[in-house]
Specification:
This protein has 10 helices and 16 strands. Strand 9 and strand 10 form a beta hairpin. It folds into 2 domains: 185 residues, no CATH class; 157 residues, NAD(P)-binding Rossmann-like Domain (Rossmann fold, 3-Layer(aba) Sandwich). The longest helix is centred in the N-terminal third of the chain and has 17 residues. It is an alpha/beta fold. The strands form 3 sheets. Strands 13-12-11-14-15-16 form a 6-stranded parallel beta sheet, sandwiched between helices.
Length: 347
Amino acid sequence: MQELLHLLCSELAAGRPAALATVVFQAGSAPRGAGSRLLAGPKGLLGGTTGGGLAEARVIEACAKACETQEASVLDIAMDGTLAARSEMICGGQVRVLIEPFAPENRELANVASLAAAAAEGAGCRIVRPYASTRTSWTLLYDDGSAAGARLDDAAAKTLLAAPLDEAALVPCGETVYFCERCQASERMIIVGGGHVSRPTAAIAGLTGFAVHVLDDRPEYANSGRFPNAEVHVTPEYARCFDALHVTPRDYIVIVTRGHLFDGVAAAQALRTPAGYIGMIGSTRKRQQIYAKLLESGFTEQDLARIHAPIGLDIGAETPEEIAVSILAECIAVRRHAPAPVTWRKK
């Protein structure tokens, strides 16, 4: 969402209308779930996706029409046999897509979009809009209870803030149903070590939506020349490598340093953070050696269970690029709460 919000603001600043299409409901084997989105203008797709194929083409056409009429709408798409066959897809589900137009002359709405883009940089909020309205109307509900944009009554605001929300959901508030979704910064992947595995890992992580940070104690390895899509940090010592990063449960820590000693030190620091994922490269024998030292230093078996080691799904990877694919595959499985197939699990 972060990237599309910035793109939307750029289009409006340039005087061009655009429409945001968001999947608000998905059933069956449709290609993308609730919260998937794209941005399109009068001339076609600008960014994002709702699943591709003919279904997405219909969404883009609806966005172009909305840019002309400036009317919001809901588009229902059934992935029946005819549509699936024509688009070479085997889906058999349904999706409902909310189409929301934005016009440069609507400064109030453009300002709300700008605030949402800023919130996506870290403040965090919920974007709330009436589900069945012909008018694009956004309210930003911040986590502290404050709000910006279209006014909500107190009862609706309280209900929407209390709704359990992972990414996106339809929330009934009295006679009105709202589509509510989290607006927050991208998940971070913090790669500890700037060696040969780190470069393809950082590249693929960026392509899959992670904000990438790379740490190394050697300036010749931690630099933007090696990692053009990442924030790089030269850390004076691995024993304090996460101090300035304010690690949260939405962070993924990937430990791929140049040696067992550094890996163990970084793993100990990672376990002292609330990171949602901790992975460490190396053989089973290396893992046992490091785990023994971590237990000696006071960590428990429950602590060690947080570490994915050897890192990545067991796909027989050998090259740095293949290892990077296996690492990102495991991270995506964690992100999507999807257990790896039995045949892929680590030995």
